[in-house]
Amino acid sequence: QKEVEQNSGPLSVPEGAIASLNCTYSDRGSQSFFWYRQYSGKSPELIMSIYSNGDKEEDGRFTAQLNKASQYVSLLIRDSQPSDSATYLCAVTTDRGSTLGRLYFGRGTQLTVWP
Amino acid sequence: DAMVIQNPRYQVTQFGKPVTLSCSQTLNHNVMYWYQQKSSQAPKLLFHYYDKDFNNEADTPDNFQSRRPNTSFCFLDIRSPGLGDAAMYLCATSRGQGVGKAFFGQGTRLTVV
Questions:
Q1: Cβ of B102: how many Cβ atoms within 10 Å?
Q2: Among A43, A61, B64, B91, which one has the highest count of C-beta atoms within 10 angstroms of its own C-beta?
Q3: Across the interface, do B103 and A46 touch by the CB < 8 Å criterion?
Q4: Which among B42, B96, B104 has CB closest to A101?
Q5: How far apart are CA B58 and CA A99, in angstroms?
Q6: Beta carbons of A89 and A5 less than 8 angstroms apart
Q7: Which chain B residues touch A91 with a CB distance below 8 Å?
Q8: Which of residues 50-69 of B touch A (CB under 8 A)?
Q9: Which class for A59: exposed (0-12), middle (13-18), buried (19 or more C-beta within 10 A)?
Q10: CA closest to B59 among chain A residues
Q11: Are B52 and B101 in contact (CB under 8 A)?
Q12: CA pair distance B34, A105, nearest whole angstrom
């Protein structure tokens, strides 16, 4: 499976701080990038999308950034809250060729926000 | 309002006894995925369907099979479960080309005894 690498952490930040999570990918043809949040024992929940054409979605305290030259994607969480404590999964996909439709995940970074 | 529904939520099966997990969606999405996730590991893609086209990952064991009888339903069959197949099985859907956002069901926790 295509490699998606994440620092598994754990990453620990105080409440109110900025949490920065990173993800690198091996397939230069990857076109779409996603961040999912997964609470323990639950399924992943999509929180952020960013695309190789520059389109991206921002949701309040969450911002995603893409560096195509260096093949990494980052997620910034501003004003971190204890409820943000979870595992954050990076996922990438391509929309062409033999990998059409395939969505691959990293193993996730565990984030803890302490009060 | 549930959009991707997996049944059952918890499944206990005996070693070697075939088991089927189901997934249904109300989103009319083209793509349906099956992932296996073990503790502290990345979700591992087993298969995906792009419409009726079945796509198997090279490292998916032959013990795992899938069926998609129509747009809304997809099944994961484990022919002879082993202890190593105990995991959370996640079904997800997406619109496919151009928009790859995937939405997950709640998962089925499989225990093999």
A1: 27
A2: B91
A3: yes
A4: B96
A5: 12
A6: no
A7: 102
A8: 50, 55, 57, 59
A9: exposed
A10: A1
A11: no
A12: 13
Burial class for A48, CB neighbours closer than 10 Å (0-12, 13-18, 19+): buried
Per-residue model confidence as pLDDT tens digits over A86-99 = 999 999 887 655 55
Reduced to 3 states (helix: H, G, I; strand: E, B; else coil), residue B36 is strand
pLDDT in tens, B7-37: 999 999 999 999 999 999 999 998 999 999 9
Of the candidates A34, A101, A105, the beta carbon closest to that of B42 is on A105
Structure tokens at A65: 């950034």
CA dist B50 and A97 (Å) reads 13
Nearest chain A residue to B29, by CA: A101
